[in-house]
Specification:
A four-stranded mixed β-sheet has the order 1-4-3-2. The N terminus and C terminus are likely disordered. The protein contains five helices and four strands; from the N terminus they run βαβααβααβ. By secondary structure, it is α+β, with helices and mostly antiparallel strands. The two termini are 21 Å apart.
């Protein structure tokens, strides 16, 4: 079982999409977005924001711009790295930012910040369908003991066991499918 204790909340639930084919073919063959990676530090986010804004138009996240609000580092970094990724040709290497970004296969604009009540509802639903014992007290994935981390685990397990489809990751528009590293072994998909 993957240890999801390493995943940190950013803006929305991030579910991991495991793909056995060519990663670059996957990104090029369908719409993809570059998003901030859970666990990225403020320093990593700021570095990504600065680099991306030196190579892509970040006017919309400047004061008075259409994407200025919410005025948070993670929101501005997410906008900037995606703008850079889209403008540079949507190659997997255009969404690395020193391992502080991920390719999302689901449009992240539909995923607003998720409240605790919705997270608990997602946990309750998923755990009726899959074995959530690893996130119970004393379980291998109990820590960190936060609704965000427990929901990420439960939702991902549900997704993995129910066809890995967009529908099995929707969770009232609070799930997000990303192409990423497998957190259980820290190797990059290729």
């Amino acid at each position: 079982m993957a240890n999801f204790a390493l995943l940190q909340p950013i803006v929305s639930i991030i579910l991991i999409f495991f793909h056995s084919g060519k990663y670059s073919t996957l990104a090029a063959s369908q719409m993809a977005w570059c998003v901030a990676k859970p666990g990225s530090t403020d320093q990593m986010l700021q570095a990504g924001l600065d680099y991306a804004c030196n190579h892509a138009d970040c006017g919309p996240i400047q004061q008075g711009g259409s994407c200025f609000d919410p005025n948070t580092l993670v929101q501005h970094a997410a906008f900037a790295v995606n703008m850079y990724y889209q403008s540079m040709g949507r190659h997997k290497w255009d969404c690395d930012f020193n391992d502080s970004a991920l390719l999302s296969l689901t449009d992240p604009r539909g995923n607003a910040e998720v409240d605790t009540e919705l997270l608990q509802s997602n946990i309750d639903f998923a755990c009726q369908k899959v074995d959530c014992s690893p996130i119970k007290s004393g379980g291998a994935c109990f820590d960190p003991n936060t609704p965000m981390h427990h929901a990420s685990f439960a939702m991902n397990l549900y997704y993995q066991n129910n066809g890995k489809t967009a529908a099995s990751c929707d969770f009232n528009n609070s799930g997000l499918i990303v192409a990423a590293n497998d957190p259980s072994d820290n190797t990059f998909l290729s």
